[in-house]
Amino acid sequence: MSTERPSDAPPTLEDVLAAADTLWPFPLQEDWDASGLVTGRAEQPIRRIHFAVDPVAAVVDEAVSRDADLLLTHHPLLLRGVTSVAAHMFKGRAIHDLIENRCALLCCHTNADSARRGVSDALIAACGVSPDDAAPLVPHDTDPRVGLGRVGTLTTPVTLRELADRLAQRIPPTAQGLRVAGDPERPVSTVAVCGGSGDSLFDEVRAHGADVFVTADLRHHPASEAREAALGPGGSGTPALIDAAHSASEALWLPWAAEDLRHELERRGFAVETSVSSLRTDPWDFRIDTPGT
């Protein structure tokens, strides 16, 4: 009996994993990360893939409502160890809902941060720098073309305010919006970015001479120390800082991911439908400005 699949057969989950590994190689993930397959059988057919930043309950419900066979998220569901996935807990509920609706879950986290056309490439493109002209802030040991963060130069310098306005139009809206540190009228040309939490990369940002650093989750002390170093004796005033909400800084990658995975599967002879979540999964709901700000 022939074991060949029909020419119009959908890819299996194993096929999709192989394609994802080509685009966002799993060995690129950081040692502490948990990228990879969370639920699903290797042989199950995949016809519809839904993309989102966070594997939260609303996203799982959205994927199920779209009859997705695979939910691909940036953030892992099980980044830290758990001792139970009982359905009365939110992670257990997500796993049960996915399995019971035959929807696999694949997480591409820091491997997608480091890969070309990954999270930071999408963020620096939103700033106005071509990813082809950007380099990693922290090159990976195995390939200097990939790695954490990106740095590149704008074709035409803009003011810090203009760059912040540009990003505000392109980054998904959140209650936080954008926080900016620096003279709004100062020109910026060299831009460093890191999608997600980036305040561990200040040394690399300064080493590249970046005029501005665009990232998320900037804590008070690292941001304050960076500003003091920039403005103190011998300081150049750089880098200015633009701080976005964590999920918003990464969501720009989702349309790229959907397009790239669909094209990679087409190259392998498979056709799938893809969709990108429209849900805002940033945990904050609203902001109240204090008087005088």
UniProtKB/TrEMBL annotation:
Record-listed a divalent metal cation binding positions: 74-75, 113, 246, 250
InterPro entries to which the protein is assigned, alphabetical: DUF34/NIF3, DUF34/NIF3_sf
Molecular-function GO term, any one: metal ion binding
Superkingdom assignment: Bacteria
The name this protein goes by in its record: GTP cyclohydrolase 1 type 2 homolog
Organism: Kocuria marina subsp. indica
Family in the record: Belongs to the GTP cyclohydrolase I type 2/NIF3 family.
Pfam families (UniProt xref): DUF34_NIF3
GO cellular component: cytoplasm
Keywords, in A-Z order: Metal-binding
Residues annotated as signal peptide: none
Subunit structure: Homohexamer.
